[in-house]
Design goal:
about 375 residues; alpha/beta; Glutaredoxin; six-stranded mixed beta sheet; 6 strands
Amino acid sequence: MNAQRVGRSLSIPALLVTLLSILAIACPLAPVAAEAKEEPAPNDTAGPLLKVGDPAPALKVSRWLQGDEVPKFEPGRAYVIHFWAPWCANCVGYMPQLAEIQAQYQGKGLTVIGVSVVDPNNSQEQVTSFAKTRGPRLKYTLAFAGDRAMYDTWVAAAGVKTVTCTFIVDKTGRIADIGHSMYLPVALPKVVEGTATAKQVGDEMAKIHAEVEAWLEVVQRDPQAGLRAISEFEAKYPPLADYFLAATFKLGLLPKHGKPGEAVAYAEALIKRSHEKDDARMLRQASSILRIEGKESRELLALAVRAAREVVRIDGEENAWSLLDLADAYFVSGDKAHAEEWAAKAVHAARGESPAVKESVEREAKRFRPE
């Protein structure tokens, strides 16, 4: 099964484990340097080589695919560096948010750069094709690195084990945050306005990460108390209200632990916002969760279908997995005819994929055929 999909038959405990994996996918917060240094930290096998407060390494890009070339970091400008790959659903899922951030800070000295690094599953041709089809909607700088040098000096040096990671470089050229794109709304304002040093920003982000861990623990112990803890966290940090992690948990918990009608109202609002932002990641997650936790509500299942249809609108009818998700949404809601129709489209869309993908799609599609 494709990694971007949430299983259909998960219980609440299993669902929480799945949602917690979001944090595992996210980049861990790197240790904050005790003092900002004039030169990069020396090699130290006991910990990350690149830490918050260190000077940002050089950009090592072989081709600029969209936006103006950025040969070096300019003093007085801030930067967001997002590592991604077209095959990485987690990376691609945060691109609409990055586009929104670039638009928000367009005239305030911020440049967002998405860097895709070559790997066995990620060629220049694949990245270029993605940039041509999705780039015009994203409207921020996209680049390709034809070797692993930039990945090694950034992601690997920071001790990150995943392909995706987001770095903030402040206006003095120092690393102000190493983490996940979902936290940018909190970290960026101080960096762009120049009201805090890189270390101060890092200290605040470390505190926020600790508070997230705290409400995650409450959610697992007591879902109703967890919902209150999430609300308190969002009230404390308004830029993180309904951000991906919190929205995912609320959507999973409200059907059984919220007030009557609260789950439907929240799901409707979340899907509407995600539609406006072309946020396929949140829409996909919403549809999957509603199929699990909303299976006893016709209203929630209808919203699951709506969210899945929005994903197909964004991805197009060439993405077999999105088509299968829509088929599953129809199937769970009781519309077997539409489920079969979209499953057939998924099989058709997978014809140009690898044999393994074709086989997997065809196997999934069989579930929706009448016996």
